[in-house]
Amino acid sequence: MSQLRFIVFKKIMLILVLMMSGCSSMYSHKKPGTYTYPSRAWALNVDGDVSVSFDVDSRGKTENIHILSEHPEYLFSRGVINDVSEWKFPAGHPQHHLIYHASFRKPGIKYTN
Asked: Does this model's pTM top 0.90?
């Protein structure tokens, strides 16, 4: 009987750990200026550049996120918007029309003209 309790206890602990790790990532914020290389662009060995504009509200959260330019088009913008939406700035310092530039360069790619 004690072995059955131990198995049940292990399963309950595993479920709790999984639930806690999922919850903590839901509320985490990325550091401003950090971007995730889009998996599709990575798989295709494509580099790119994106310029993005946004505002920061009084709570330090980003809003009004707009892509100003992107090369190549339609490959990086969704990821940049998602990343910027997770950034957290110091509260109490709202800012408007901030512009950041992201350059995605995959290491090890050889370029030829």
From this structure: no
